[in-house]
Automatic annotation (TrEMBL):
NCBIfam families: birA_ligase. Residues 71-262 form the BPL/LPL catalytic domain. Residues 23-42 bind DNA. One of its GO terms (molecular function) is transferase activity. Acts both as a biotin--[acetyl-CoA-carboxylase] ligase and a repressor. Belongs to the biotin--protein ligase family. This is Bifunctional ligase/repressor BirA. Keywords: ATP-binding, Biotin, DNA-binding, Ligase, Nucleotide-binding, Repressor, Transcription, Transcription regulation. InterPro entries: aa-tRNA-synth_II/BPL/LPL, Bifunct_BirA, Biotin_CoA_COase_ligase, BPL_C, BPL_LPL_catalytic, HTH_11, Transcriptional_repressor_C, WH-like_DNA-bd_sf. It catalyses: biotin + L-lysyl-[protein] + ATP = N(6)-biotinyl-L-lysyl-[protein] + AMP + diphosphate + H(+). Its EC number is 6.3.4.15. Pfam families: BPL_C (PF02237), BPL_LplA_LipB (PF03099), HTH_11 (PF08279). The gene is birA.
Length: 325
């Protein structure tokens, strides 16, 4: 984690985006010497932040490399709560495991865990999740909502909406959501979401939302068997993206929709979810633990479950399944 003073410097540059801040201004604001400021600016440079220093004018941040350390994420972060506590590690077994440990140690809502590499990345339905080193986002987000477990799956749909909207803002691409929580571009998967809850039957204590996004992979990064089903933002747009920037926008979108959800419930989120949904109105197959349901996806309930109408006109409510077209 960055030191308190460095965090304050980062915050001042975030508030004064694209402006020069003089050594004197920073030293007055933070109550430390100009030499100390100079040392912190050097540290930022060593961390890969491009700093321009102009004599008698001051310092300006002119660029960042594609890294996801807490400094990279905090510099430009515009949220109140989400991402204000960041745990960054180069290599972990799974960011979900670290986040669950932090939950036990009272980490506040909005804490995120980010890693470059996962040795045991977890996917839905007990699958593995592969995180391409240096090219993807692997992040877990800690929530502490006062909601009943019944409505918790809505948080997965909300997360999908926040990520879809962030991808749209950063790349200009309109992604699709495949129920419940895959994000697709041109029918290929670009992001997966894994929601894990802690609590009992009546009350949720915490939720850890795992987010895996393929950002800067190129086609040769995918084995042949995956190239038809997986893609990255870079492949789709033909240019690389700064992962820290995407994380900042995801956190801002998430914070916005989460506040709406806690205040007004799922309905406003449901409308947004439907605007990104790929499966609605289509013939689909839902494979659940106990059965296969084939029919037309006709919508989601106000609680977020998928409704499928089979050829006999019977409507099935799906709580958890793998969907194929
Ligand atoms: C899926 O589509 O099956 C969900 C994939 C979720 C992957 C993310 S990456 C960050 C977090 N840590 C994990 O081990 N899994 C989630």
């Amino acid at each position: 984690m960055a030191s308190k003073v460095k965090e304050q410097i980062i915050q001042l540059f975030t508030e004064n985006h694209d402006r020069y801040l003089s050594g004197q201004y920073l030293s007055d604001k933070l109550g430390i010497s100009r030499t100390a400021i100079w040392k912190y600016m050097k540290e930022l440079q060593e961390e890969g932040i491009e700093v321009e220093a102009v004599r008698k004018v001051g310092y300006k941040i002119i660029g960042k490399s594609d890294r996801m350390t807490s400094t990279d994420i905090q510099l430009g972060l515009e949220t109140k709560k989400f991402g204000r506590q960041i745990v960054y590690q180069e290599e972990v077994n799974s960011t979900q495991i670290i986040a669950s440990e932090l939950v036990m140690n009272d980490a506040p809502e909005g804490t995120i865990v980010v890693a470059e590499r996962q040795l045991k990345g977890r996917g839905r339905l007990q699958r593995n999740w592969v995180t391409s080193d240096g090219k993807a986002i692997a992040m877990s987000l800690i929530l502490r909502p006062s909601i009943s477990p019944r409505v918790a799956p809505q948080l997965t749909l909300l997360t999908a909406v926040a990520i879809a909207s962030a991808i749209e803002k950063v790349t200009g691409i309109h992604p699709n959501i495949k129920w419940p929580n895959d994000l697709l571009i041109n029918k290929k998967k670009v992001c997966g979401i894994l929601t894990e809850m802690q609590g009992d039957a009546d009350c949720i204590k915490s939720v850890v939302i795992g987010i895996g996004i393929n950002v800067n992979q190129v086609e040769s990064d995918y084995p042949l068997e995956l190239s038809d089903i997986a893609t990255s933002l870079r492949i789709e747009k033909g240019q690389p993206f700064l992962r820290a920037k995407l994380i900042q926008v995801i956190l801002a979108e998430f914070e916005k929709y989460y506040e709406i959800f806690l205040e007004k419930g799922f309905k406003p989120i449901k409308i947004l979810w439907e605007s990104y949904a790929i499966s609605l109105g289509k013939q689909i197959k839902a494979t659940t633990l106990t059965e296969e349901v084939i029919g037309q996806a006709i919508g989601i309930t106000d609680e977020g479950q998928l409704l499928i109408e089979d050829p006999a006109g019977i409507v099935h409510t799906i709580y958890s399944a793998d969907i194929s077209f």
